[in-house]
Amino acid sequence: MPEEALIIVDMQRDFMPGGALPVPDGEGIIPRCNRYIEEFRKRGALIVATRDWHPENHVSFREQGGPWPRHCVQNTPGAEFVVELPADVVIISKATGPDKEAYSGFEGTNLAEILKRNGVRRVYICGVATEYCVKATALDAVKHGFETYLLRDAVKGIKPQNEERALGEMERAGVKVLYLI
Ligand code: VGL
Ligand code: ZN
């Protein structure tokens, strides 16, 4: 049973430059995420990819009074992954109902059960955006009792200042921020 999981958070077209809700220089971490995927696959880790997977009328969209432009609508090109995922990747879709926002990959999903069922004790997290979905996922991972590592060189925030603050919050909550490669 794999003791480890790599969780790739929301590496989707709409969060990349040219997409609906771009993370500045978000494409810069694609090769690093791909390298971690390859590395963790070789180590026998469970590979998990979360995706923002909104219905057309999601509450987070500006047309519905939310804070964000329309992004990552289910089954649209903007919701597609931009990293190279292995065939046996576990895909976790989140914020799939119209009325509920969910930044964390654990919120409203069976991610915790899947990890535990597979014997996972340690999780390593990469992806976007550091101060939103990455942070929420990392904090929930700690709450669920997983030893939680953030792959600092393979995450990217929307605003550098907010990203720094988020890293501090995660560290205080017990997330270990590290460079692995
Ligand atoms: C995200 C804003 C809205 C994220 C998702 O993946 O960090 N941010 N939806
Ligand atoms: Zn979203």
Automatic annotation (TrEMBL):
Keywords for this protein: Hydrolase, Metal-binding, Pyridine nucleotide biosynthesis
EC number(s) from the headed UniProt entry: 3.5.1.19
Coiled coil: none
CDD domains: nicotinamidase
Keyword Cell division: no
Gene Ontology MF annotations: metal ion binding; nicotinamidase activity
Pathway: Cofactor biosynthesis; nicotinate biosynthesis; nicotinate from nicotinamide: step 1/1
Annotated InterPro entries: Isochorismatase-like_dom, Isochorismatase-like_sf, Isochorismatase_Nicotinamidase
A family per Pfam: Isochorismatase
GO biological process: pyridine nucleotide biosynthetic process
Residue span(s) of domain Isochorismatase-like: 5-178
Family the UniProt entry places it in: Belongs to the isochorismatase family.
This protein's name: nicotinamidase
Species of origin: Thermococcus celericrescens
UniProt lineage: Archaea, Methanobacteriati, Methanobacteriota, Thermococci, Thermococcales
